[in-house]
Amino acid sequence: MTDKKNENKRPLVTFALFAYNHEEFIHKAVIGALSQTYSPLEIILSDDCSSDSTFEIMQKMAAEYNGPHTVILNRNEKNLGIGGHVNKVMDLSTGELIVAAAGDDISYPIRVETLVDQWSLNNYVADSLHSQVMRITKDGKYKGSWKTENCLSSDPRDFVSQCIIIGASHAWTRRVFERFGHLNTDIIHEDRTIGFRSSLSGGVLFVDKPLVRYREGGISQNGYTQLKINLSQQILHAHILLLDCMQQYKDYIKINNNDVRILSAIQTEIEYNMSSQIVAINSDLN
Questions:
Q1: Tell me, what's the pLDDT at 217?
Q2: How open is the CA angle 47-26-191, to the nearest 5 degrees?
Q3: I want to staple 96 with a disulfide (CB 3.0 to 4.6 A). Which of 11, 76, 131, 146 is the partner?
């Protein structure tokens, strides 16, 4: 993909809906996907081997859809977890921009349109885009809009130690995966990992308006519960953050960049999370 496009040619975008045991919410999530105003749009409805009726609901809605968008239905034969699921969808998709959505959130119909409009004003340089979200309770009541404190940052050091991007609002380019490759399948915080990759390449673009209804208390908000590690929550949390740091280190080395400030930030975060694991283990033993 070239950085500057013919004004009359809009990029193909993939809207990727990631679902796992979301039967209570998936119907509205799929409506949000199918209602997108942007074209050309490829929609992937992907289920990570749910044990409930999530896939069957998506399958029925896909079969009944007769709109302008291409719809691809996928069900993983086994549960891949967040990192593996993202990798699978990247392999299935063909869009130049991948707009991600969780099965318990609801995207506004103008979400993709708005992101691409802002991306075009950016000359298609940014490799990650994110926006405000409208927070809702588990039963759908509005709680107000939200954005992260450091939402305008594209500094790689910020992505090492903070959650800059709200995953529910995240979109990323195909080229960032072409440059860095698949995610480690153990990765839980794909927004942090892909955001870091983007900060090392084309940068991160924030759109200051809510484009997603983000369900607090939903399954997607606490993704690491899918990991079956028989340790205390403190150890598990530190372990997950350590995996994030190791992925960031591998990604950073790939670009042969010698910015010692970034390397120092990664090293500091790795040491912190290793010490956190040790403290938690000692607490368990005592």
A1: 80
A2: 65
A3: 11
176 close to 168: Cβ distance less than 8 angstroms: no
Question: CATH number, domain at 194?
Answer: 3.90.550.10
- Dump pLDDT digits (tens) for 33-50: 999 999 999 999 999 999
Query: Do 112 and 61 reside in the same domain of the chain?
Result: yes
Domain count, the chain: 2
Do 42 and 23 lie in one domain? The reply is: yes
* Domain that includes residue 254, residue range: 233-285
Q: Which residue has the tokens 């891949």?
A: 80
Residue 174 and residue 212 share a domain? yes
| Residue ranges in the chain assigned as alpha helix (H) | 26-34, 54-64, 81-92, 111-121, 156-161, 174-180, 190-199, 233-254, 260-285
Length of the chain: 286
